[in-house]
Predict the 3D structure of the following.
Amino acid sequence: MSRASLRGQVEYALQAIDCIGESKHEAKQAQGWKPGQAVYGIYSYGTRNTVFDRAMTLVHWVEEQYPDVKYLSELDEEIITEFIGEKLETCQPNTVKALLAALRKLQEGLFARDWIDDDIIVPDEWDIEDNSIPRGAYTMGDAEQITKWIAERSPEFAQALRVILSCAARIDELYHLRGDKIFLDEGKVELLGKGGKARRIRFLQRDIFEELDRSKRFIYLTAENGKTWKDGLERIVRRACDELGIQRRGVHGFRGAAACEFIRIKESLGYTEMEARRELAQWLGHNPHRTEVTYAYVPKQVIRK
């Protein structure tokens, strides 16, 4: 991928599926289109402009929340879940539905350019109507049930989830957690975020970090497990939710549960809602003045009046 800006990458991706001037009706026939399906490609300037504008909504958000992300291919389901989660809390459902449709078009263009090889922007199963988008946080009770179920099958994955509950690490941050970046005396851990940006934050529970083998350079990363470790963690959480009858919220839901606990602690210390949300945004690795993102984790009604 060239060193174009994110805006330039959006334009280049949409050019790859530009079918303006061609017959959409003929395209439907050629693609074996069925009602309810999207037609591959863009067939009008109006659609192209709409998709571009909505894609730029994502780009502007990424530039604010993840300034070290320079390529659309760096986006992952966790980042997009966070983005859509914020929109679900702050926008009307129809607005989010239209946004998802536009982002699927962007995804078509990224596939056409061979910049991605998976549904990293909008997974096929995401749908507003059937509530299939991972959203919000697990309750602590649900998180504990899931962790207990997983512990009987994979103690390492269960341990990893407990780490997330204590510091709200993203999956990639968790996977790259280093033993020498855990500071028990300070009650802090250093997490390596997108673009190599590190942040040192206070963890909520000391005992889980005491259990980790801090003599290892990386707690979970090995030369053998590669991407399979992160995928394995996602799969076992989905399986646990299905077995226990708990709504799927992904591994991201554990980050949300940690965020809710963080807010509860700040609330007990007398913080106002906005003070608590600013602290939370920073703890999660975001700009403390951009508190909108915290609504993806902690809806307004969770804050005690």
